[in-house]
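User: Can you predict the 3D structure of Preprotein translocase subunit YajC? Sequence below.
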Amino acid sequence: MTWLIILGVLLVMISPALCLRPSPRERRVAALRKAAMAAGIKVQLAAPPLHDGPRLMPRYGWEYPNDYPGPRFVLVRDQEAGNVLEPYRSGWRWRVEPLRHLPEGVDQRLRLLLERLPEDALVIESDRDAITLWWSESLGRDVFNDYLADFAYLKKHLAGRPDQPTPRLRSIRELRDLQ
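Assistant: Sure. Here are the predicted C-alpha cells for Preprotein translocase subunit YajC:
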C-alpha cells in the first residue's frame, strides 16, 4: 500500500512537467519557423489584412532590398473576400491591385504559385518592404521548401518596381549646380 501512495505522489509531481511538453504540431511549427528564419525569411505573428479575420496569424515575409522597394498589392482567397473584389485567378481576388501591371514572367509565376499553395494560405501581400505570405502553417519544413524558389523569384523580379518612386538624393555638386 505504501508503494501505491509513493507512486501516486510521484505521478502528481511529474504530471505538470508532462503537460508542458510541446505537441507534435508545436514541434513541427517550431522546426518550420526555424528553417524559414535560416533561409532569411522574416516570421512574425501579426494581424492579417482581412476583414473580420483572425486577430493574429503567422506572416512569412521575403524582404526587398532597402534601395529597391516593391509594388503594393494584396491578393485574398475567395472564402475571405467578397464578390465585390475583382477576381485574379481561380480562388483568388485582388483586394488591392498593383498600379502597374506585373511583368509577364512574374504574373505567370505568381499564378502557378497560387495554384500550388495550401488551402490555409489566405493572403499574398506586397508592399514597399516585403512580399508576404499569410497562412496557418499547415505544411512541414520539407514541403514548404518547395515554395522558396517561387517566392525568391517574385522577390527578385518585383524589387525595384515601387508604385511611387522614392526621390533620388542629390549630391552636393548637383545642389550647387541648381543654384
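The radius of gyration is 23 Å. Residues 22-165 form one domain.
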